[in-house]
């Protein structure tokens, strides 16, 4: 199982790019948790915490594809680092000012989300220049999803540790400083400085002119909604069952489950169309959300939360391959950023929805939201099966041509026959 991953990490620049991207994305990955804990420490309500997190998420959703398009046009260093600095500064203003005045809090959250650098999409654009074989790129996609779950496992623990040692305010500042350092590590690397996008057709819709990509984004909106709702429902559960420590373990268990599932998924090559495989993975994801409504004691609940995360990373890794199949030429960063955006919007809607649901019906109903969202995601995939099964026609351009200064078109096999 480890051999394929070690082969990737031994490639020059691979470990640095992966680590830098994960560290750079830490503020974004922990924002919802950090904001909820910060607002609670300030004496705010679940609804206010959910609303502020939703503003951050919606602004992030708007900014990711726009910044991704700028990266495709102007390169990574000119966009990624300035954006990271602006985002960190805005979050620091929010941490220092709190919720008084409230308009400043909303503006700060909006700016922080809008300028979050598209490091995740940028990394997937860089993999082909670092890993020349297509099978290695596919393995890297899976490893990327697994590595993110390490961050989602460690991130909640870092947030709760910072809160315990210092304060929720300090957690917001420290995590964003770390994020800027991660972004800096990526953009000063040779692959990031050398990367150039492939030629693209001028079109105002950019990557969104692909029907298959639109179908995938529709499904992942609800996958994100499920994950976001667990964040708020978990806080409500922890308040009645042990406090912040229990909440940290629940969120860490969710990431750990996804880590295990993603590791197993990425350890082998899969045959058949990834679109069909994604439907099966999303169905399993939805089924594993259902036991959360049992709301047992902390130990059992931690185990159920880990189970709920098992199929998340495999779903994400499979989606990367589908994006690769459907993204128009020259829109690679933008297309991956749209996936991040849609997932973020869904998570933000989930946090905003789960707050009122918890206040109205209690923790049990809060945990019912992810199961319903997972089922809707599956229905979207089933309804758009024909669109997803038809990747963009014509020869497929090698991903490595994204880095070819001569813009040479290199034919390759379609990524649809293995993941």
Explained architecture:
The chain has helices at residues 2-10, 14-24, 26-41, 46-74, 77-97, 102-114, 119-130, 134-165, 168-187, 190-194, 211-240, 244-266, 274-289, 298-309, 312-326, 332-361, 363-383, 385-388. With 419 residues, the chain is an all-alpha fold. Helix 2 packs antiparallel against helix 9, helix 5 runs antiparallel to helix 6 and helix 13 runs antiparallel to helix 17 (363-383). The longest helix is centred in the middle third of the chain and has 32 residues, at 134-165.
What is the N-to-C order of secondary-structure elements (H for helix, E for strand)?
Answer: HHHHHHHHHHHHHHHHHH
The termini sit apart by: 15 Å
Give the low-pLDDT segments. 393-419
User: How large is the radius of gyration?
Assistant: 20 Å
Question: How many beta-strand segments?
Answer: 0
What structural class is derived from the secondary structure elements? mainly alpha
Task: Give the integer mean of the pLDDT values.
Answer: 82
């Amino acid at each position: 199982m480890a051999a394929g991953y070690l082969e990737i990490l031994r490639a020059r620049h691979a470990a640095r790019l992966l680590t830098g991207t994960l560290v750079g994305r830490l503020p974004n990955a922990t924002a919802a948790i950090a904001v909820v804990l910060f607002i609670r420490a300030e004496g705010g309500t679940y609804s206010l915490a959910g609303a502020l997190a939703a503003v951050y998420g919606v602004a992030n959703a708007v900014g990711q594809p726009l910044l991704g398009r700028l990266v495709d046009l102007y390169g990574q260093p000119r966009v990624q680092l300035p954006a990271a600095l602006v985002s960190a500064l805005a979050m620091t203003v929010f941490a220092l000012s709190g919720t008084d005045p409230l308009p400043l809090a909303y503006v700060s959250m909006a700016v922080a989300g809008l300028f979050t650098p598209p490091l995740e999409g940028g990394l997937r654009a860089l993999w082909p220049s670092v890993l020349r074989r297509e099978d290695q790129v596919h393995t890297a996609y899976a490893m990327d999803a697994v590595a993110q779950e390490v961050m989602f496992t460690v991130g909640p623990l870092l947030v709760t540790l910072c809160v315990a040692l210092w304060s929720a305010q300090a957690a917001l500042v420290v995590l964003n400083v770390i994020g800027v350092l991660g972004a800096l590590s990526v953009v000063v690397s040779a692959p990031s400085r050398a990367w150039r996008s492939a030629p693209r057709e001028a079109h105002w819709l950019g990557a969104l002119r692909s029907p298959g990509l639109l179908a995938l984004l529709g499904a992942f909106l609800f996958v994100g909604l499920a994950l976001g709702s667990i964040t708020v429902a978990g806080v409500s559960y922890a308040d009645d069952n042990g406090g912040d420590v229990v909440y940290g373990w629940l969120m860490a268990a969710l990431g750990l489950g996804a880590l295990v599932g993603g590791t197993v998924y990425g350890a082998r090559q899969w045959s058949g169309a990834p679109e069909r495989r994604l439907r099966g993975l999303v169905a399993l994801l939805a089924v594993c959300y259902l036991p959360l409504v049992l709301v047992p004691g902390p130990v059992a609940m931690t185990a159920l939360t880990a189970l709920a995360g098992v199929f998340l990373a495999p779903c994400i890794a499979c989606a990367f391959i589908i994006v690769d199949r459907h993204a128009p030429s020259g829109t690679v960063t933008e297309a991956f950023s749209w996936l991040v955006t849609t997932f973020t919007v869904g998570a933000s809607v989930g946090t905003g929805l789960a707050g009122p649901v918890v206040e109205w019906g209690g923790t049990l109903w809060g945990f019912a939201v992810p199961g319903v969202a997972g089922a809707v995601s599956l229905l979207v995939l089933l309804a758009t099966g024909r669109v997803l099964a038809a990747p963009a026609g014509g020869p497929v351009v090698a991903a490595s041509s994204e880095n070819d200064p001569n813009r040479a078109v290199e034919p390759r096999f379609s990524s649809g026959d293995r993941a």
